[in-house]
């Protein structure tokens, strides 16, 4: 019989062969000191290095290790979602594979959870060994998002957090494709607390968040919490139309009342360029939203699992609960 699980630790992995064994050992050490049983769910997000083989080996020799292998790279947020779908614990912890989030903090999170918090997020009070560019863009982004969402999203908080089973179950009902999990979890409410920590430098390897992935996550976050960019396009439009009218008025005045002849075509060219730019920006912003609507309309699965190792039957059933049932909306577990 499969024993019950108190804590599920979800670890998204994408090409982390240099660090994954170290991560496993540190997590084991920490979780052995945790007040209850645990499982380590590694989600291999389509790695192309040896991560998968290493993880498969770990899952085969250690009964507390589970492994989900994606059929290709679906991204960090999809990997976390999959881990949560298959988790069996009464509390679920999400942690990066590169040891930037110190595993020891998990014990503090568990302590807070025992005090009655349903969500305990890790707040980065310092970030070690990250580039100035990353720190600066992160600082601006978190503050901008908070302003745009008009909603209390805590800044400097990543996906390193613990959530209670009931939060995890509620989150499973959200199958939106362009997901920004940390935002969704704060939006959900429940009793939320924080644990402060110093985000350490990566233990090995390089970041797997390319600039492109970072930008996508940033716009997913903004687009899923705010319509302001769409509105900003029209505000800008109004502003520049008004400016254009005033400018035209000045030119007419100069021509007819001051008798100054202005080389109009030069100005026209410049104005034209400027307004076309504004129009394109506005169109681009709409495109970003429409693209996301299109993605929701297609309603493809968030991820595809190619292989599962070490899960109980119950965990597999749980993980597959949200699968499409003909005639039923995908993404909601069936209520009987
Ligand atoms: N990751 C993933 N899929 C991706 C990119 C990253 O599962 O497409 C994992 C990665 O292995 C790590 C975590 O997500 O465990 C955070 O990524 P990373 O450390 O590269 O991001 P950073 O800390 O630099 O923001
Ligand atoms: Mg990292």
Key features?
binds uridine-5'-diphosphate; 11 helices; binds magnesium ion; alpha/beta; disordered C terminus; Spore Coat Polysaccharide Biosynthesis Protein SpsA, Chain A
Task: Give a nutshell description of this structure.
By secondary structure, the protein is an alpha/beta fold.
Fold and architecture overview:
With 336 residues, the chain is α/β, with parallel strands linked by helices. It has 2 domains: 7-226 and 301-320, Spore Coat Polysaccharide Biosynthesis Protein SpsA, Chain A, CATH 3.90.550.10; 228-298. The protein has 11 helices and 8 strands. An 8-stranded mixed beta sheet has the order 7-5-6-4-1-2-3-8, sandwiched between helices. Helix 2 (51-61) links the parallel strand 2 and strand 3 (65-70). The two termini are 26 Å apart. Bound molecules: uridine-5'-diphosphate and magnesium ion. Uridine-5'-diphosphate binds at residues 12-14, 16, 45, 73, 75-76, 79, 96-98, 100, 207-209.
Blueprint (SSEs and pairs):
Layout: E1 7-13, H1 20-32, E2 38-44, H2 51-61, E3 65-70, H3 76-86, E4 91-94, H4 105-114, E5 119-127, H5 132-149, E6 157-164, H6 165-172, H7 181-188, E7 192-199, H8 211-225, H9 228-258, H10 264-298, E8 305-309, H11 313-320
Parallel strand pairs: 1-2, 1-4, 2-3, 5-7
Antiparallel strand pairs: 3-8, 4-6, 5-6
Helix pairs in contact: 3-11, 5-8, 9-10
């Amino acid at each position: 019989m499969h024993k019950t699980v108190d804590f599920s630790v979800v670890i998204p992995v994408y090409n982390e062969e240099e660090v994954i064994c170290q991560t496993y050992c540190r997590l084991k050490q920490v979780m052995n000191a945790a007040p209850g049983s645990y499982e380590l769910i590694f989600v291999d997000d389509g790695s192309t290095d040896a991560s998968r083989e290493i993880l498969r080996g770990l899952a085969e020799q250690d009964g507390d290790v589970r492994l989900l292998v994606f059929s290709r790279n679906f991204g960090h947020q999809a990997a976390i979602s999959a881990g949560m779908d298959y988790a069996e614990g009464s509390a679920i912890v999400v942690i990066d594979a590169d040891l930037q989030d110190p595993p020891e903090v998990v014990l503090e999170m568990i302590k807070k959870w025992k005090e009655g918090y349903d969500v305990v997020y890790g707040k980065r009070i310092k970030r070690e060994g990250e580039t100035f560019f990353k720190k600066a863009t992160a600082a601006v982004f978190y503050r901008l998002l908070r302003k745009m969402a008009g909603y209390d999203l805590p800044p400097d908080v990543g996906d390193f957090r613990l959530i209670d089973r009931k939060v995890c179950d509620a989150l499973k009902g959200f199958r939106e494709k362009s997901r920004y999990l940390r935002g969704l979890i704060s939006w959900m409410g429940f009793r939320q607390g924080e644990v402060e920590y110093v985000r350490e430098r990566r233990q090995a390897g390089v970041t797997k968040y390319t600039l492109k992935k970072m930008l996508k996550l940033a716009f997913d976050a903004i687009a899923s919490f705010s319509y302001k960019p769409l509105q900003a396009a029209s505000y800008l439009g109004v502003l520049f139309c008004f400016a254009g009218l005033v400018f035209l008025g000045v030119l007419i005045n100069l021509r007819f009342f001051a008798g100054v002849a202005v080389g109009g075509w030069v100005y026209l060219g410049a104005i034209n360029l400027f307004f076309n730019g504004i129009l394109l920006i506005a169109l681009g912003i709409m495109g970003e939203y429409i693209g996301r609507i299109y993605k929701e309309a297609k309603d493809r699965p968030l991820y595809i699992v190619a292989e599962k190792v070490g899960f109980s039957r119950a965990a597999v059933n749980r993980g597959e609960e949200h699968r499409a049932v003909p005639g039923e909306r995908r993404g909601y577990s069936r209520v009987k």
